[in-house]
Amino acid sequence: MNISAKITDERVLDVRFDEASLIVDLMDGRTISVPLAWYPRLLHATAAQRAAWKKAGAGYGIHWPEIDEDLSTEGLLRGAPAVKAA
């Protein structure tokens, strides 16, 4: 029997935004698009602040130093919005 394993690479390749979405391209060719409204810090950030992102966690995360926001590709793939402040 021939078993072929799926090889995925969930590390961040690129991050961009449109008017309503955060769009993350992964190294394996997939693209994740989530509502910007899920992440209030990003929603209210300036375009320059959104553009100032860095890879984090060996490439499995995204960090925006100016707004203190951190997201993981795992959370994005699960469709996890930001935790709401109590």
Can you identify the CATH class? Alpha Beta
- Low-pLDDT parts are none
Largest sheet: 3 strands, antiparallel
Which strand order spans the largest sheet, edge to edge or round the barrel? 1-2-3
CATH superfamily: Uncharacterised protein PF10387, DUF2442
From the alpha carbons, calculate the radius of gyration and give it in angstroms: 14 Å
Sum up the overall morphology in one term.
Answer: globular
What is the CATH architecture descriptor?
2-Layer Sandwich
- Let me know the average pLDDT: 92
Domains, number: 1
Helical content band: 10-25%
Précis, in short:
With 86 residues, this protein is α+β, with helices and mostly antiparallel strands. Helix content is 17%, strand content 33%.
Please tell me about this protein's structure.
Helix content is 17%, strand content 33%. The strands form two sheets. Strands 1-2-3 form a three-stranded antiparallel sheet. A three-stranded antiparallel sheet has the order 4-5-6. The protein has one domain (12-78): 2-Layer Sandwich (NE0471 N-terminal domain-like). By secondary structure, it is of the alpha+beta class. The protein contains three helices and six strands.
How would the blueprint of this fold be written?
Elements: E1 12-17, E2 21-26, E3 31-35, H1 40-43, H2 47-51, E4 54-56, E5 61-64, E6 69-72, H3 73-78
Antiparallel strand pairs: 1-2, 2-3, 4-5, 5-6
Q: Key features?
A:
86 residues, alpha+beta, NE0471 N-terminal domain-like, three-stranded antiparallel beta sheet, 3 helices, globular
